[in-house]
Design brief:
8-stranded mixed β-sheet, 17% helix, VOC family protein
Length: 254
């Protein structure tokens, strides 16, 4: 991700919905060095912000509704949540939770693209999102896993005006040419029951070491550490409660 702060249309926050909040706090604190702080207000529902130093980098929360999957979610910054939700509908997506205020922090909505991948819209007021990107333990890339690439390219370029950099093996999303994420077409290697989804990637000092720490702590690997040709080393773990996420280390410049 080439951004060092949230920008309109770009990813600004990653949020875990988990079936065991206390276990997740310990797991990610050990894995990434996060310092979790749970909002004590009853109406916050256990919402927990993870910090690196004083910088907020991600959130952990209990599951708030029946049937909600254990999963990481990605939020994209927008100037106006209501207008963005209307644009999602007009472009063929769905609004799953209508825009609502979150204290004085901002206004958000939960939406889905035409392929069914769920994401969030965030209109910042006092809270803009992650205060650190690309550093170890912080968000550095987001990846859309989809079964309908043509439909979602049309959707996201309409809703967010993203730039698209396609190649034979991988398509990258950007804002005015600054790439922040990519897209993978879900083929036969993905079980049919796995829905389209957004996957956040967190930077780490060492992918192999972090991957081992994940399995030692009760998680497992969906994708073993792999070096992308002319790119980063990556892996995709799943935490003990079942939420998948990516980890990466940029290739050393020669």
């Amino acid at each position: 991700m080439k951004f060092d702060k949230p920008v309109p249309g770009g990813p600004c926050w990653a949020e875990l919905g988990t079936s065991d909040l206390e276990a997740a706090k310990w797991f990610y604190a050990d894995l990434f060095g996060w310092r979790p702080e749970t909002d004590p207000r009853e109406e916050a529902g256990g919402y927990t912000i993870a910090h690196l130093g004083d910088a907020p980098v991600a959130a952990l929360s209990p599951l708030y509704r029946e049937g909600q999957p254990v999963a990481w979610n990605v939020s994209f910054a927008v100037p106006y949540a209501d207008a963005a939700a209307a644009a999602v509908r007009a472009a063929g997506g769905a609004v799953l939770l209508e825009p609502m205020d979150v204290f004085d922090h901002g206004r958000f909505a939960v939406v889905a693209d035409p392929g069914g991948a769920v994401f969030q819209l965030w209109q910042p007021w006092s809270f803009h999102g992650a205060a650190l990107f690309n550093a170890p333990g912080s968000l550095g890339w987001v990846e859309l896993m989809t079964r309908d690439p043509d439909a979602v390219i049309a959707f996201y370029t309409t809703v967010f005006d993203w730039t698209v950099h396609p190649s034979e093996s991988y398509t990258q999303w950007g804002i005015e040419g600054a790439d922040f994420g990519g897209m993978v077409e879900m083929g036969a290697r993905f079980p049919h029951e796995v829905p389209s989804h957004w996957l956040p990637y967190f930077a780490v000092e060492d992918v192999d070491t972090t991957a081992r720490a994940c399995t030692d702590a009760g998680g497992h690997l969906l994708m073993e550490p792999t070096s992308v040709p002319d790119g980063p080393r990556i892996a995709v773990p799943r935490d003990p409660q079942g939420a998948a996420f990516g980890i990466y280390k940029e290739a050393e410049e020669s």
